[in-house]
Amino acid sequence: MKKQYKIVLLIFLLGSLGLLFYSTWYQWNDIQSKEKQKTAKQTIKHHLPIAEFKLESMARALAISPIEPYYVVSAGDSNEIMVWDREIPEKPIKVLTGHPIDENETFYGIQSVFFDSSGELLISKSSWFVAFWDVSTWELISSHKIPSTVSSVSPNDNLLATGSLDIEIWDFTNTKDINKIYTLDNDRKHYIYEFPKFSYNGRWFAMSIQTPPSTPTTNDKKVRIWDLNTQQIHKTIGKLFTDNKSIESNVNEPLMSESNQGIKYSNQTKRNEGDIRGISFSPDNRFFAIGEQDGFTIWSLPHWRIYNKVDNVYIIDFAFSPNGKVFAIASLGGIMIWSIDEMKPIAKLSGNGSNLYWRIVFSRDGNTLVGSGYDKNIDLWDMEGIE
């Protein structure tokens, strides 16, 4: 009997010691985890803009000159194109007013502005017309009536993509007589949505598309990639974040909160997941990214394997830096700069306004990032030293 009592006592003592050890380890590990999170937040430096342009309406189109990164071009809800110099932020150095208007147009506005690869041409695109401008004089060279809902310019070739159902590819080597060279068939089972992009090596073309809704609540958006060598569809990517949780938020709980990654949803937030906010090819041809409302996914190229996926981060726009070392995410509250190798945020950019940015663009040399804000401001940040 005494022997059994000793065994039970020994088991009790060992269990107590184990519980004490686990409790001590858990508390120590929790403290270490909080310290790491605190340290991570402290290492993310906050950067303010080096220049700010104030507009009368929000800039929906944005471009930086590839040969003179001090020049920024913006356009929006009017048919005026603003040319800015970051050394003279008070007002635009030039206002271009010659973009043509069709007699049937009910909405005036420039959808997109681009510089060609040489930086000698500025291309503006509205729903009805494409116009070419001589950057040396800012004079209109020519315009062509090409009705379309979206457009994009190849970063290294004289190619313009326009589309409403199918995608038409144009050669604008001769700006006075541009030539349609081929059409990318979209099988007309989808509506073209937005974000058309050429890859920097000229091989890929990608676009967000939307299927005709079968019900009023259907929101089936995908990204389609064409191989420009074969002019055939190479890949179609559906929703990456498909939980589709629809839980009403607690009144006392914030819908979104700021973290060291950007803006995150609360676990109780009601949201529509799968809403594509931006797509981007990296200029070094290593990566392709899709930013959705609820996170982002990065593929490694040319094999199209998933490199990394981060969820629960609110996305408005996404852009790779020219050297491919970092990428920028426009989120609520500012712009987060992430390291591509470490897959973690390393800097935060914010301005003096609402800090809601509609579009973000890197300069070709990577030294400047420009953001167009919902507060009708354009902010510029110096990227030197951030990477």
Structure overview:
The protein has 387 residues and is mainly beta. The chain has a domain at 240-387: Methylamine Dehydrogenase, Chain H, CATH 2.130.10.10. The chain contains one helix and 31 strands. The protein has one helix at 2-43, and strands at 45-47, 51-54, 61-64, 71-75, 81-85, 94-96, 112-115, 121-125, 129-134, 139-145, 150-153, 159-163, 167-171, 179-184, 191-198, 204-210, 221-227, 232-237, 256-259, 262-265, 276-281, 287-292, 295-300, 305-311, 317-320, 326-331, 334-339, 344-349, 357-362, 368-373, 377-382. Strand 29 (357-362) and strand 30 (368-373) form a beta hairpin.
SSE layout and pairings?
Layout lengths: L1 H42 L1 E3 L3 E4 L6 E4 L6 E5 L5 E5 L8 E3 L15 E4 L5 E5 L3 E6 L4 E7 L4 E4 L5 E5 L3 E5 L7 E6 L6 E8 L5 E7 L10 E7 L4 E6 L18 E4 L2 E4 L10 E6 L5 E6 L2 E6 L4 E7 L5 E4 L5 E6 L2 E6 L4 E6 L7 E6 L5 E6 L3 E6 L5
Parallel strand pairs: 1-28
Antiparallel strand pairs: 2-31, 3-4, 4-5, 5-6, 7-8, 8-9, 9-10, 11-12, 12-13, 13-14, 15-16, 16-17, 17-18, 19-20, 21-22, 22-23, 23-24, 25-26, 26-27, 27-28, 29-30, 30-31
What are its keywords?
387 residues, mainly beta, Methylamine Dehydrogenase, Chain H, five-stranded mixed sheet, four-stranded antiparallel sheet, globular
